[in-house]
Design goal:
4 helices; five-stranded mixed β-sheet; WD40/YVTN_repeat-like_dom_sf; globular; about 375 residues; about 45% strand; about 10% helix; mainly beta; six-stranded mixed β-sheet; Methylamine Dehydrogenase, Chain H
């Protein structure tokens, strides 16, 4: 295990050497009929692109809704423009502090409700015209087996999709457990089909999950450890499994995503105005490591507005468009924000000797404890 002094030094370095990410922000355009209020997200948690990348879903935590945005993208004079073509707000009585979300297919989503259960919703086939519409619930899953209840589900990731079955790797935030309930699907009929407890050892509020589709590597944001835990393969997860590696040097990791065939990973830091970036060309992710780079994607005033405590203020949700061209981050006070991924990575060369100003950046928890 890495020495505590190394953790402290790594955390301080990622904050003080943050690369300017705001210069890589996309311009957000709204279609006719949409006002700026449409992207006033209030408190959000996870976000997720649909498989075809035409829709992004955002968990409306305090409003007990799912926000759906129809989007398009283009480059104008070399600058990325993300256009919000339409919006829907989904409601259902079983939405209770929705925290995690993932697409099972283009019209079906899994939602993890922090104050409720894991539910499967059918998206209404209506125009994205700004209306609020009820969603149809196809399934509500309360437990894996009789003695294993799915309580306080947070982030969720769809995996092991077959013709008739799929699994949902689910962080049970306040149970310090990651579960993997399995489902049988026959059209719109979704039935419980077993499952297992996937992880327990070392879990301290698991708060985000990503599974690499190419390598089946698993990454879990471990909130109170201030780290991301990495596991070699989804099939190897066991309650007592040890991680093959850890990503350190951040405040409170939240949403995260593998990309580039599992060789890269981005994570939102809820306790800092940053997203962190790691690269491992082997895609094995062995050992402990600090960020390859950290990008400042929020200005001082926006971060301060959400700084209710040392665990808040920064971005919560993050997802990378299927094309790899841009990512979206969501937070209460910044709202809907998008960033050009190639430009962000290019900043590593242009800014590596010119870090962004850091006098207002928070200390990591480990660094604060050492002072």
């Amino acid at each position: 295990m890495v020495d505590m002094i190394e953790i402290i030094e790594a955390g301080a370095q990622s904050l003080s050497a943050a690369v300017d990410g705001l210069s890589s922000a996309a311009r957000i355009e709204l279609a006719d009929g949409l006002s700026s209020e449409a992207v006033n997200l209030k408190r959000t948690e996870d976000c997720r692109f649909s498989p075809n990348g035409k829709v992004i879903a955002v968990a409306g935590f305090l409003t007990d809704t799912i926000l759906l945005f129809e989007i398009s993208q283009q480059h104008v004079a070399g600058n990325l423009v993300v256009r919000i073509e339409g919006k829907l707000t989904l409601t259902h009585p079983r939405l209770s502090r929705p925290h995690g979300i993932d697409f099972i297919d283009e019209t079906t989503i899994a939602v993890a409700n922090r104050d409720g259960r894991l539910i499967i919703l059918k998206l209404p086939q209506v125009p994205f015209d700004g209306r609020t519409v009820p969603a149809k619930m196809l399934m509500r899953r309360k437990r894996i087996w009789m003695k294993h209840k799915l309580k306080t589900p947070g982030s969720v990731a769809v995996t092991r999709k077959g013709r008739f079955t799929y699994e949902l790797l689910t962080c049970l935030n306040y149970r310090n457990t990651v579960a993997s309930p399995r489902f049988l699907r026959l059209g719109d009929l979704h039935l419980p089909f077993g499952g297992r407890i996937a992880l327990q050892r070392g879990m301290e509020i698991p708060d985000g999950v990503s599974i690499c589709p190419e390598t089946a590597r698993v990454a879990i944001s471990n909130h109170n450890e201030n780290a991301i835990r990495l596991y070699s393969h989804y099939d190897d997860l066991r309650p007592n499994a040890h991680p093959v590696g850890r990503l350190l040097g951040m405040a409170y990791p939240h949403g995260l995503r593998f990309f580039d065939k599992g060789r890269r990973l981005m994570a939102a830091d809820a306790g800092a105005p940053l997203i962190h970036y790691w690269r491992d060309d082997t895609a094995k992710w062995d050992g402990d490591r600090t960020p390859t780079a950290s990008f400042r994607i929020m200005d001082k005033e926006t971060f301060a507005a959400g700084r209710y405590n040392d665990q808040e203020g920064g971005p919560k949700g993050i997802d990378i468009h299927p094309s790899g061209a841009f990512l979206v981050v969501t937070s209460e006070h910044q709202g809907f924000a998008a960033f050009d991924v190639p430009k962000l990575l290019q900043r590593l060369e242009t800014d590596k000797t010119e870090p962004a100003a850091s006098d207002d950046l928070p200390e990591t928890p480990a660094a604060a404890a050492a002072t």
